[in-house]
Here is the input.
Amino acid sequence: MAWSLEQICSIAAKYELKNGMYVNLGIGIPTDVANHMPDGVNVLLQSENGMLGMGPFPYKGEEDPDLINAGKQTITQLPNSSYFSSADSFAMVRGGHIDLTILGALQVSQTGDLANWMIPGKMVKGMGGAMDLVAGTKRVVIMMEHTAKNGEAKLVKQCSLPLTGVGVVNRLITNLAIFDFIDGKMLLKEMAPDVNIEQLRICTEAEFD
Amino acid sequence: MSKIFHNAEAALKEILRDNLVIMAGGFGLCGIPENLIKAIYDSKITGLTIISNNCGTDEEGLGPLLKNYQIKKMIASYVGENKTLEQQSINGQLELELTPQGTLAERIRAAGAGIPAFFTATGYGTVVAKGKEIREFNGKKYIMETALHADLAIIKGWKADKAGNIVYNKTARNFNPMMATAAKTTVAEVEEIVESGSLDPNNIHTPCIYVHHLVQGINYRKPIEKLTVREKI
Here is the structure.
């Protein structure tokens, strides 16, 4: 049985979040990883619009329009939070100070190339901070559905969509399996319960060991 | 001579003309110079190149300038949630240049710091690298990005003293501090102008040297793009 989105978030949290880490979670589903924080693990979340130590959503009526995250959602500050400019924020990212980023994807190639900013057939909205994050963060973990809704492979030999970064992915967690990318090779680490290797190869265009 | 003007229109009067390159602070609708944007809207100047992380929504922020056909070119990192922009971009009425967010911030910072270009790994191997010089440092590939200057920067602070030293509030800081340094003229609007000496010099975010015109804004709307709350248990 494939993992649900909820389970993928929980797996990502369990495997990736270590006490004391500085982490940037992508807009959308990766944001939900924060709700699966393992017991005893404390991480500081960075929001690339200029905040370290992002707190939960505010209580109703306590929202502050001057305090939002990169997804433009209202948030709160914590006792150890700090604010800074966009230039300082991306110096933090580019300078390799952020331990981990977890992002979504449209395609991942067998050599760890990532495409996640241009949706085919739709208006180009822009890459935001995604290219900076994958180029600068120490570890890049991707969460995505193993195949597209129409059944097309998303885990491919070579990305057909415009790239966000070349060879930047360290780990991929899909609803079917977990893969690691080491020295340009894609390695199967784990499969969801009742998924077998033959099934996995059928819906995976990329070659893996 | 005082930098303080009575309203946004007066603060921009001598500067506004067609075809200006304007930097506008803000991330989404957070920390945007509402009064100065409105004054540019009312001035009806056109042919503008706008440098800003986003281009507002259809109704808020820089959005109305688009609807008014005042913008010729937009340099931004993300322009979703804006149907007017989508339409004008498809029709060829608007030139759109997309830059990674960190590269955009650093290009502006570099301009203000007198650095003509820098190398970054961001965008290597992607469309962003197209036509740009590539250099290898310590075995890693980087692309050259150039400084981004403007004729005018419109920025939004929280408080300023009468000399123009500025303090920002929370994540409303974002692109404002760099933009204040990167234009020929910087016009700042703040929610409150306080007496000199009442802001702690230890905590000034933008020193007054970067601020040429200053105005206390009025009627701040501060729209929230995505209201997210939790219930009290």
